[in-house]
Model the fold of this input.
Amino acid sequence: MNIAEWLHRQARADGTRPALFLGQEQVADYATFHQKAAALAGWLQAQGVEPGDRVALFMKNCPDYLITLYGIWYAGAAAVPINAKLHGREAAFILQDAQAKLVFTSPELQPALQQAGGAVRMVDATATDFNAGQAAEPVVAPVMRDPQDLAWLFYTSGTTGQPKGVMITHRMLIAVSLAYFVDVDAASGADQILYAAPMSHGAGLYNMLHVRVGAAHVCPVSGGFDEMEILDLAAHFGRVQIFAAPTMVTRLTRVAKAAGREGAGLRSVIYAGGPMYLADIIEAEAQFGPIFIQIYGQGECPMGITALTRAEVSDRSDPNWKARLAGVGRAQTGVELRIGTPEGAALPVGEMGEIMVRGDAVMPGYWNNPEASAEALQDGWLMTGDMGVLDDAGYLTLQDRSKDLIISGGSNVYPREVEEVLLMHEDVREVSVVGRPHADWGEEVVAFVVGNAAPAALDALCRSQIARFKCPKVYVHVTDLPKNNYGKVLKTELRQRLKEG
Done:
């Protein structure tokens, strides 16, 4: 089934229900939402887009994002949402790798993409082509797709610094959406989902289930995360659900405490995407009440591995409540979870190993990358690369992240990618990038550099090549890097140096 069929059904069932908002202003009901998506699909077909083709979105959060996404699906194509925070060069690579037919962009993002030499046709989401698309002859209904057909091509950085395209099928989106109702939270047409995090990622992956129940979709006027704007919108609408990185939760808590706000209208905050420190979630719940739910997932199993319910987050009666609150919950409906060896053999309860998951929410593989697919998928199990422990009750605790992944502000940063950029500078002989705990961002990127390059020059180089959130916040010049007998840099020792100041 085409996941977009849910919008088609909702428009027929109750087309007058409010659907899309920019701030407090309604811009479309469900009938209009459907009509615009269907018209855009007709326009895409007239441009030569066929079922299975990839069409990209390099856009900031706005109501037209959802219209575009569903227009792509109505046409039977696969969407390639690209994080609007990425550098134009990074976005251009994704477009080329995905073999995208065209890309919808926000005006402010076009220059960076043009400078990167992107050859894919760009459609300004505020200009003539887009307006013509919404006025075109609409398709009658979404093009039929099989459950295993590609719906969403999600690019996640690899350890080599080269992004990999996770193939997300219509079956996966349906599985994750249905599991939400069972394991994460209730949702109804009386609710609103507020997109404060990028719609190209976790926040956007929750749009489908809210379309299914006829909820309202609210995009902040700021286009991003502004604490007071979120508090004001929640108070206005009254039943708001948001997806947020842990760093966003801590920032929202800090601002609310300073302003004397208790989060009126915030019904649910689903947090994921990085480590949530125990003290931070306790403080957040003390400020806002029992509105927090944690989930754990990866692009390869989006939003769908485990969940810690609001009751479990707020429970203080269980003797193990602190340990559970520091974990990520239990397996979601429709997936199997186990801890295994690197070879995939199951380990006993209580032993640390690699987190493995299988089920309908797990990807079939990476786009045009059979080697990486074979490494990640073993006998149907996704080898997540994350290390963890399961207890007797099935609660999962993440013990470590493999591959030295840094999560800053909810966004993934792979050190190898940053290191390769820094090594482009002629005065850098060696470099090693690690993460350091940060109160606001969860972690910040720190580069240990052997060489004479000035920090300002290194910063300019990074900003010309990669997204700003990946650029090191601190450059530490050293005479050499600690290494083992095999010549491998000991990043653990570098992190310890930072810990010791």
Observations:
- The chain has two domains: 5-390, 405-499.
- DSSP finds 18 helices and 25 strands in the chain.
